[in-house]
Amino acid sequence: MILHDVANGLDKIPFSWLLVGHCLYVAQLKRHACKGRWLANYWLAFFAGFGGGTASAILLFDPQLVKIALFANDTTAVLWTLSWYLCNYSPGTLLQYTCDLRVVGTILQACSDVLKVQTICSRVDYGVVKYTGVHVAPVLLGTLGGCGGKLFCDFIQKIDPGSKASTLPTEFSVQTYSGRSSFLSALVYYLLVYVYPTGYRREVQTAIILFFLIQGTLENLTGGAIGDSTKVPAKIFHWVTQIPEGKESTASGKDTKSRNKKARKKKRE
User: In which residue ranges of the chain is pLDDT below 50?
Assistant: First the structure.
């Protein structure tokens, strides 16, 4: 079975390699966030990369079952700090230039995607063990494990007055690939492994990993010409339920402040 062989191949990749690739990918992705404020950037990028695992671990509230990454061992903190420093403050721009190369960026994203799917599936597994007989908990924990980092970043940027992203919609108001892919992955994994067990847990997880890798690779190598495939089931959902899709605001922060000022003036009049 092809998926079985792919799963065996993925198992041979050292976890430390995947972790380094993930750290470099996230540090490079958030390099320009909170510009000029290094500590804010450090924690924003950290939660972007590890927020999902952290939030879902807190909700599980069982350190014996799953530990928060930052407290589990020193390896994660050390590798993350080194990756963040090298991407932001290393002498010269060789590492930044290398990570910006499309092929290198695709490889780093692939490492991040593999860890993301593993986190989603593991949180579903832990949810089944912790909340036996409950269907919502495993899917919710799996979804949070995948997109919790995006939720953390949205929150931090919303309360940060110096962030240019403070006026942009959040994942709660306008769902993106991060939330949709995490939910669909958690749902499919839960259905095929626990509700209608196929007996191929590793193969199901590998299929989800391949979906992420194919989507990310095609999108990167084509410069975004390949669209987000998770929009299709989302549109079907909204069409069937007649629930309107969230719409992104095109107004800038300056326009928003201007409108608010006019509204207050009109109210006083």
Answer: 249-269
CA angle in degrees (0–180, nearest 5) for 211-216-217: 100
Q: What is the dihedral of CA 84, 147, 63, 133, to 10 degrees?
A: -170
> Cβ(80)–Cβ(45) under 8 Å?
no
The Cα–Cα gap between 183 and 139 comes to 7
* Residue of 245, 241, 262 whose CA lies nearest to 169: 245
Using one digit for the tens of pLDDT, what is the confidence trace for 137-162?
Answer: 999 999 999 999 998 888 887 777 66
Burial class (CB in 10 A: 0-12, 13-18, 19+), 145: buried
What predicted TM-score, i.e. pTM, was given to this entire model?
0.86
Amino acid at 21: G
